[in-house]
Amino acid sequence: MILAAIDLPSPSPYLAALPLDALFSTQGIMVMLLAAYGVAMWMFLTSAPKVYTMMVSDLETAQQLYEGLFELPAADVPLHYYYNYEQTLGTSGIDPLYMSADLSATAPRANDIPEGLWYQLKKNTQLHIISGASLGSNNRHRHVCFDRECLEEVLMRAQIQGTKYKIRRDKPLNFLIKDLQGRTIELSEVSN
Fold this sequence. Notes:
The chain is of the alpha/beta class.
């Protein structure tokens, strides 16, 4: 019986340079935990939806437009909108003497849920409708947005639904549409 010598592969130089006792030491475990936390934060931030905010002159009219005419489904409020900015910036431990005198601006709202309407515009894009826009000329309802992409998506939705529309200006984008009640609504981009 002849025995042949078996040539085993040598261990990788990278594995040899990293002793296992260093990997499972307190410092090694802390490094692994920080790396896992970084990966988890990256996954959370990349999966967070893009949110466009549109100011409207009347929330009820906007709700009828986006739910009725455009048939946009309601969306859940993104997780990062549940927390106020003072807590996320780490200022919750600041002495109140150094804060502004207007405490109502930092007081949490009821149930701490952001106000307005939330709609799913695309797969990972949401539309947040808030009040605050003034009425336009001839007392038209106005919808104002800082993001051109948002208004282009809304215009495309109007075209898909067969809604009557008229583009008044391309830069900044401004167009009129008729809703189901026959009201003229002006949608305009605010130029920076």
